[in-house]
Design goal:
With 308 residues, the protein is α/β, with parallel strands linked by helices. Helices cover 29% and strands 16% of the residues. It binds iron/sulfur cluster (SF4) (2 copies).
Length: 308
């Protein structure tokens, strides 16, 4: 049975993921982070198993990138190859299924991909974010049976809508009723409200964030969210791998290969190179060298507030 951490506020979550990372680089001169990272340190692999999302949220590049008119599946052989690569290093941390798609939109595909991951990576924590539109109690039980052990349900506000705690609580209560689950509040601040549902050994949370305050401009692509000067290194490409439905590997969740401005940030393609090789490729090492500085000069990382 997989033990997973209880949901916490975002700041606490970031502190927790940074801790092992700092330990990893403690020995390095002047606290500089090593550019090469052992594959056993990979914390999360995010895989976009298909392209489709049913929404066009104002704080997401899907508001101008077409992810709605068709659904392009990640090639099944590619998916299995990625899992087998991770199996070769006994990956036992997180596999996440949410990028710029809505993973629950295609139940048959999602359940099948979860079961394949469960079989090949029995100790990995299978996780997803969801907008919750497709979620029912029956679906939740099927996801659990297929191996999903961690899920964040997002409570999204419309553009211009204020962070109205009354509305957020009502939305969470409605979801709890639909899922027939009890919950307790784990964070209640003026920019984040988060609850944890009680469901077996699953880490199941729902939260609303005030994107007007803590949103990310997604690699400079969103004009609706202003960039913020970054004064801290970024450790994300040192520990995570992000794979688009077309096999392109990106340095973090903010970059996507279907946005022209981000093409130069494509690190490699998993169709022709192992993700483990890409994880320490010359291109990623070059980027890590820039990102380990307190004052990052590279755009759009210099105005990114992610994981600070
Ligand atoms: S934020 Fe999520 S639900 Fe909204 S458009 Fe983007 S991927 Fe879809
Ligand atoms: S600084 Fe932001 S955009 Fe740049 S790699 Fe880190 S998370 Fe991604």
């Amino acid at each position: 049975m997989q033990e997973t951490a209880k949901p916490k506020g975002l700041a606490k979550i970031w502190r927790e993921i940074k801790r092992p990372f700092r330990r990893l680089y403690r020995k390095n001169r002047k606290s500089e982070w090593a550019l090469k990272v052992g594959c056993d340190k990979i914390r999360c692999v995010e895989i976009e198993i298909f392209s489709y999302c049913n929404r066009k949220c104002w704080f997401c590049p899907n508001s101008f990138v077409d992810r709605h008119s068709k659904n392009i599946l990640m090639d099944e052989n590619l998916y299995l190859r990625i899992l087998n690569d991770l199996r070769s290093i006994n990956h036992d941390k997180m596999i996440s299924y949410s990028r710029y798609n809505e993973p629950l939109a295609h139940k048959d595909i999602f359940i099948k991909r979860l079961m394949q991951a469960r079989e090949l990576l029995p100790n990995a924590v299978l996780h997803t974010n969801t907008n919750g539109d497709y979620l029912t109690r029956e679906y939740l039980d099927e996801l659990y049976a297929a191996g999903l052990r961690s899920m964040n349900i997002q409570c999204y506000l419309s553009e211009g809508e204020s962070f109205d705690i009354g509305k957020i609580k009502a939305s969470i209560a409605k979801t709890a009723e639909r899922l027939n689950l009890d919950f307790n509040v784990t964070c209640n601040s003026d920019q984040l409200h988060q609850v944890s549902f009680s469901h077996k050994d699953m880490q199941l949370s729902m939260y609303a964030r005030d994107f007007n305050v803590n949103g990310n401009n997604r690699g400079g692509t969103l004009k609706t969210i202003r960039g913020r000067t970054r004064h801290a290194p970024c450790f994300i490409p040192f520990v995570d791998i992000y794979i688009d439905y077309n096999g392109n590997v990106m340095p973090c969740c903010n970059f996507r290969s279907d946005v022209p401005e981000h093409k130069s940030f494509i690190i490699g393609n998993a169709n022709n190179t192992s993700v483990l090789e890409i994880f320490n490729s010359a291109k990623l090492l070059k980027l890590r060298k820039i990102l380990r500085n307190n004052n990052i000069e590279l755009y759009p990382c210099n105005e990114c507030n992610f994981a600070t």
